[in-house]
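Hi V.,

You were right to ask for the full record rather than a summary. Here it is.
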Amino acid sequence: MVKSMDELLTDREAARLLNLKVQTLRNWRFQGRGPAYHKFGAAVRYAMEDIKAYRDQSRVSPQQ
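Predicted structure:
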């Protein structure tokens, strides 16, 4: 399901968009890595704009 830019994603939805396992995102949070997220008590949510920003900053362009 595609959400608007204002909606928050669960870790499962964010992992699916990044083509990662949910456990990878959980490990990254524990390590202080990965995309920015929001924490509401025990609930973790990701903004679509943060997922896109993380994807863009992780891009590597090979030198020619």
